[in-house]
Specification:
The structure holds 2 protein chains of 2 kinds. Chain A is mainly alpha-helical. Chain A is built from 13 helices and no strands. The longest helix of chain A is centred in the C-terminal third of the chain and has 38 residues, at about 185-225. The two termini of chain A are about 45 Å apart. Chain B is mainly α. The chains are: A mainly alpha, B mainly alpha.
């Protein structure tokens, strides 16, 4: 480590006297980090393209240009649109069930001190165990169809919601509850106007974690065994040494994951706004 | 005084409920298998599982699989720890680089990287290398992101005052930057370890030649349910032990 610059050194775009185009470009990039970010992405794709075209066997890797120009052939493969639909369906059901179960358990454990003391350690213990070890059991109990994927997604999705809802409910300042009670609020009123708004921000960060978790669970189960979902097609493309289609399918799913994540994150920002206002 | 007594009583009551919950679960399990009409193929009875577990432990049959899994875990974590902290440190040196790279890494972190398992198997084969690569990729992001958070958002007053008192580059790093960032990095390392363990068990379950995940799948496919439950118990205990050990280390390092 030759040089540790002081923290502020590159912080603000320094006013540069030079008029050379290079300096101007530098200043422009400093003002717009987003562009540099796009540049990094483009660079990564460039490396991938060059590696795939000149260095790596075509059986294993295909360049991004051919992956993206042949995305439609992935869709043309019989069964792929249905597989994407099935996976999306499994994910949505798993997500909704995780929210329902997580919210119910979270509220009933979080709002009761005794239940909290008794069951919180159990919930944390279950949350911490690697559930992949029981994946074969889920297939055995729920079959190789969508049911096992949904069930496995739910086991991954419900715990983050429980834990964050419990934390959100517990973090309410007692003075708020006491003052609401002393001003004559009913249980329902306290829930609706004190507990609920306090729970919302942590609930939404729980939802984001639950989305990631449910997606992970569904994909794990899909990859483990699948008859019609995307797991079936990733196996098929891998065994046929068809990296173009495999990469196409994977990038579509990755795009779906990023989009869903962004959606939930936007909602989180939107619903946490009351706190800063 | 009475508050303290109340709290003690509450804690014992909580413990009692936990014990009762466990007992109820196991007796329900035993009842379902002995008197209920649950087929032993779906749910073996708890005593048989216990026998198998003792047999597995006594015969030492687990050693080979455990060694494979732990070696993969160690290799994956070693890779992600070095690359994650180094990349994180380099990025954190400039606020501009943080602005460029942090959103990229956070975005990549939100992709379920398990999706790339078929690709990794294509590149690295069915053996340990594909598991190591996947585990390292998955655990790289929390480690790098936490290293950036640790080094990147240090109170400027600290660095400026250390500098004005004449600290050298090394002194600044050793006595200001590192102590300030260390707890955050430790949290990242703990998160990385947990997800690496998950990734390795998961990829062993999906496609592998050896390892604990592979053993469970093998037993499931040969319908040897009691032994499979014994192995599941074994793996869950190992994972709980590893996670507890890492959390303990994290807590000690933060002191």
């Amino acid at each position: 480590m030759a040089h540790v610059p002081a923290i502020e050194e590159a912080a603000a775009p320094r006013v540069m006297a030079g008029r050379s185009p290079w300096r101007r470009l530098q200043r422009f990039l400093l003002a717009w980090p987003g562009l540099a970010r796009l540049g990094v992405i483009a660079l990564l794709f460039g490396v991938w393209e060059i590696a795939a075209r000149f260095y790596v066997d075509k059986m294993f890797l295909s360049p991004p240009s051919s992956v993206f120009t042949s995305l439609h052939t992935v869709f043309m493969t019989p069964g792929v649109p249905a597989a994407l639909r099935i996976t999306f369906f499994e994910l949505s059901v798993a997500f909704v069930l995780s929210i329902a179960i997580g919210l119910t358990v979270g509220l009933s454990v979080g709002l009761n001190r005794f239940a909290h003391r008794s069951f919180m350690p159990i919930i944390l213990l279950l949350y911490g165990t690697p559930q992949v070890t029981i994946l074969p059991l889920f297939i055995l109990y729920f079959g190789i169809g969508p049911a096992s994927k949904i069930a496995f997604g739910v086991t991954h999705g419900m715990f983050p919601i429980m834990v964050t809802v419990i934390a959100g409910v517990q973090n309410i300042k007692p003075i708020l509850l006491t003052s609401a009670k002393s001003m004559g609020a009913s249980r329902w009123h306290i829930f609706r106007w004190v507990i609920f708004p306090h729970m919302i921000p942590s609930f939404f960060s729980g939802m984001r974690l639950a989305m990631t978790g449910a997606l992970l669970g569904v994909l794990l189960a899909e990859l483990y065994v699948s008859t019609a979902g995307i797991g079936y097609f990733t196996t098929l493309f891998t065994q046929n040494f068809d990296p173009t289609k495999l990469l196409g399918l994977i990038s579509m799913l990755a795009a779906m994951a990023i989009a869903l994540n962004e959606l939930v994150r936007r909602a989180e920002v939107r619903f946490s706004r009351w706190r800063s206002a | 005084m009475s508050g303290q007594a109340d709290r003690d009583r509450g804690r014992w009551a909580g413990r009692a409920v936990q014990a009762l919950f466990l007992i109820a679960l196991i007796s329900l399990w035993a009842l379902a298998t002995s008197w209920g009409h649950v087929s032993p193929i779906l749910l073996p009875d708890p005593l048989a599982v216990l026998h198998e577990l003792i047999d597995v432990l006594k015969s030492g049959e687990f050693v080979g699989d455990l060694r494979v899994t732990l070696t993969e875990l160690a290799a994956a974590f070693a890779i992600s720890m070095t690359t994650g902290t180094i990349v994180g440190y380099l990025v954190s040196r400039s606020p501009y680089a943080i602005k460029v790279f942090e959103p990229l890494m956070a975005g990549a972190y939100s992709i379920p990287i398990i999706l790339f398992l078929p690709l990794y198997v294509l590149f690295f084969g069915l053996g340990p290398p594909s598991k190591i690569a996947l585990g390292a990729t998955i655990s790289f992001f929390p480690i790098a992101l936490n290293t950036i958070a640790g080094f990147g958002y240090i109170d400027k007053i600290l660095t400026v005052s250390a500098r004005s008192m004449g600290a050298s580059n090394y002194q600044l790093f050793r006595w200001v930057l590192l102590p300030a960032a260390f707890p955050v990095i430790l949290t990242g390392l703990r998160m990385g370890f947990t997800v690496a363990l998950l990734a390795i068990l998961g990829s062993e379950t999906i496609a592998s030649l050896a390892g604990l995940g592979h053993r469970i799948v093998h037993l499931a496919e040969s319908m040897d349910m009691a032994r499979m439950f014994a192995y599941i118990t074994f793996v869950v205990l190992i994972a709980a032990f590893l996670n507890a050990a890492v959390s303990r280390l994290e807590a000690r390092g933060k002191r």
